[in-house]
Design a protein that fits this description.
The chain is α+β, with helices and mostly antiparallel strands. Strands 1-2-6-7-8-9-17-18-20 form a nine-stranded mixed beta sheet, covered by helices on one side. Helix 1 crosses helix 4, helix 2 packs across helix 6 and helix 9 packs antiparallel against helix 10. The N terminus is likely disordered.
Length: 674
């Protein structure tokens, strides 16, 4: 489910079976690639630029875009088999096709429909010129396909699949589990903003540093778009997005990090044997709405149709579990305007226009960090937070037999924000919004009493370190800001150090292996540096604990984890203290470079184990941007990608940025932001 959820989370694409082709329009965009193969696309109109971006991205990574198309059309099972069918089940469950049919013309502006229809045409143009690359089921992309991505993705950014995991298993006890998982989840991504009042040179700076997988449908792709109408945006996008969804347009810039607001509730339904296929609600028995779906599942050479029956109550999707029948209500159900909101945000020329775009509230989650040429900075804990009744306990399963407990989708409450703080700087590191700058300037839960109970409470190591580094500084220079972003240290308050202290507290009497491990850990200086002899052992020990916490699984024992890590290092390196840079690598084609970092350091990296025991980084710091506005408003932009613009191994841009990335170097864009 995790892999498929990751596929679906990225979508800017596709839900329905191919619809009739869009009107025949001729597009003639200009696609210019820089020395690193990064495309900048210009069109007479915004739509023409989107057409060109689709074609350029397809040149670099058409294979992944097509997986996105299949997933969003509910046909991934026909390509990937049972694993893909799990994602198709979700596509049916949240009724992507119905949401698009209902909202395409009703909810999306004609201007935006022109853009996504042109984007679809660009993909089709590439497919027509490269028919051997096209997968069955991925032909004839339409604007409705592109719009469908919003309906599919909005529940997944904030972890809707975790809630489904509680209810979709007939043997599960969802009402015995705490629904609010956020306090125990540790996700990645950083964003920083520094205002002229705190910078040492009067500049305004914004860092985009969203941590994503390095490959696949949620991996960042860099591009720029512009048009004769004044549209201009350079930044990152996922496969299937018709324009960059974060970055800068010259006037302003914005970054995003994952947040995990509680946007779903589970309801205990009242049923009995005398009223089969019914539930009790507001004093009367009601029948479940039922729908039969067909999952197309590849099995060997054949694709087999598998029927399933879905049930719905007035609350939402309903499931039979070990706790009886339950139903799930989730925020932003049927919402298809998220991508249009991203477009409006990137189209804004000032703070007021950007806030007008944010007021759409079509994007149900994400922390957004903002900065602009005027020196304004801001942090928004964006969440489509429903207005829940204050006298109800929302922490577990709710009584599902009264309408008073069923909140309205269009009744949302205010959520935290911090605009132009007196401290002059802000960091977003996925944790609680109450810890993002100097202590005296932080917002407090009491400032947002309605939202606070449904917001995560944890602080990441990255959050601790950002404050520990930047708060003591009277002014923050460019060099100091970048040093903070690439910090390698685990705070004494971090879970990594907590794990190490647990290991050190264990009794090593008559245990020579543990005694050797403890001796090495006592020498650890808390850095995940490439010359550190203890960092590899620490990282390998911590990653199983880190992953279990993220996935909601029981945490492995720290002593067991460190013994497994020590065995790994002895087996492959002949010692437990090889320098981290010998173990942690960036491998891509003919490139094999040492790296440094750890899962929850500000230089964030995760990895996959290779057959030779090395750890090949595959997640975390990757595509990054630094936007720097001088006091006169002039913009300079630095950017880097962990690999390069192309997914084709034969391309010179397959790994031409890797050495720069490993060496903390940047590419510099033109001052106009393109």
């Amino acid at each position: 489910m995790k892999r498929i959820a990751a596929l679906l989370v990225t979508l800017a694409f596709a839900a329905c079976a191919p619809a009739p082709a869009a009107p025949n329009v001729t597009y003639n965009p200009t696609i210019t690639r820089d020395a690193y193969g990064v495309p900048s696309v210009h069109g007479a109109t915004d739509a023409e630029a989107a057409y060109g971006l689709a074609y350029a991205h397809a040149e670099d990574n058409f294979a992944t875009i097509q997986l996105v198309i299949l997933a969003a059309r509910g046909r991934l099972g026909a390509h990937l088999g049972e694993e893909g069918a799990r994602g198709d089940f979700l596509w049916h469950l949240i009724d992507v096709e119905g949401a698009v049919q209902a909202g395409y013309e009703r909810d999306l502006s004609p201007e935006f429909r022109d853009i996504i229809e042109a984007y679809a045409a660009g993909l089709n143009a590439y497919a027509a010129e490269h028919p051997d690359e096209v997968l069955p089921g991925a032909r004839n992309v339409t604007g409705r396909d592109v719009a469908a991505g919003s309906a599919l993705t909005v529940p997944l950014f904030w972890g809707f699949e975790r809630t489904l995991g509680l209810v979709a298993d007939e043997s599960a006890h969802p009402c015995a589990a705490e629904q609010a998982q956020a306090p125990s989840i540790d996700w990645g991504s950083n964003a920083f903003a520094v205002a002229p009042s705190r910078s040492d040179d009067g500049h305004t700076r914004l860092i985009v540093n969203s941590h994503q997988p390095w490959a696949g449908p949620v991996a960042w792709y860099e591009a720029g778009v512009s048009s004769d109408t004044g549209w201009r945006m350079h930044g990152g996008l996922f496969p299937g997005a018709p324009f960059p969804v974060l970055g800068t347009n010259g006037h302003l810039g914005f970054a995003a990090t994952v947040n995990l607001p509680d946007l779903a509730d589970i309801y205990q339904l009242t049923t009995d044997d005398a009223h089969r296929d019914q539930y009790f609600f507001d004093g009367a028995w009601r029948r479940f709405e039922t729908r039969t779906i067909w999952l197309w599942v590849k099995m060997g050479w054949f694709t087999i149709p598998v029927p399933r029956t879905l049930r719905y109550s007035v609350h939402g999707p309903a499931f039979e579990t070990a706790d009886g029948w339950v139903a799930v209500r989730y925020a932003a159900a049927g919402e298809i305007r998220a991508m249009e909101q991203f477009y409006r945000m990137g189209r804004a020329e000032n703070y007021q226009q950007w806030r007008e775009a944010m007021a759409m509230r079509a994007i149900p989650s994400f922390n957004f960090m903002y900065a602009d040429a005027t020196g304004r900075i801001g942090y928004l804990y964006n969440a489509a937070m429903p207005n829940r009744a204050p006298d109800q306990d929302w922490s577990g399963c709710l009584p599902g037999d009264v309408s008073a407990n069923v909140w309205a989708h269009d009744d949302l409450i205010n959520v935290p924000e911090l605009i132009d703080p007196s401290s002059g700087w802000i960091a977003s590191t996925n944790g609680a919004p109450w810890y993002s700058t100097d202590e005296a300037a932080n917002i407090q839960p009491s400032d947002f009493p309605d939202a606070a109970p449904f917001i995560e409470t944890y602080i990441t190591n990255r959050g601790y370190r950002a404050v520990e580094i930047l708060s003591p500084l009277r002014t923050i220079s460019d060099t100091q800001l970048l040093a903070a972003k690439f910090d390698l240290v685990s705070s004494e308050r971090s879970r990594t150090v907590e794990m190490v202290n647990t290991i050190l507290a264990a009794n090593a009497a008559n245990d020579s292996e543990l005694a050797e491990i403890q001796a090495l850990l006592r020498s650890w200086d808390r850095r995940a540096a490439n010359d550190s002899p203890a960092a590899a052992l620490v990282g390998l020990s911590f990653i199983p604990i880190y992953n279990a916490r993220r996935e909601g699984r029981p945490l492995p024992d720290a002593l067991e984890s460190v013994r497994v890590a020590a065995t790994h290092l002895r087996t492959h390196f002949g010692r437990i203290d090889p320098p981290l840079g010998e173990v942690l690598r960036l491998r891509r084609g003919d490139v094999d470079l040492p790296l440094e970092g750890a899962p929850d350091t500000l230089r964030a990296l995760r990895w996959a184990e290779e057959p030779d025991g090395r750890l090949n980084a595959d997640f975390g710091d990757g595509f990054m941007m630094v936007m720097d506005w001088a006091p006169d408003g002039a913009l300079s932009t630095r950017v880097i990608h962990q690999w390069g613009a192309s997914e084709h191994p034969e391309s010179p841009h397959y790994n031409d940025q890797s050495e720069m990335f490993a060496g903390y170097q940047w590419r510099t864009l033109d001052l106009d932001g393109r």
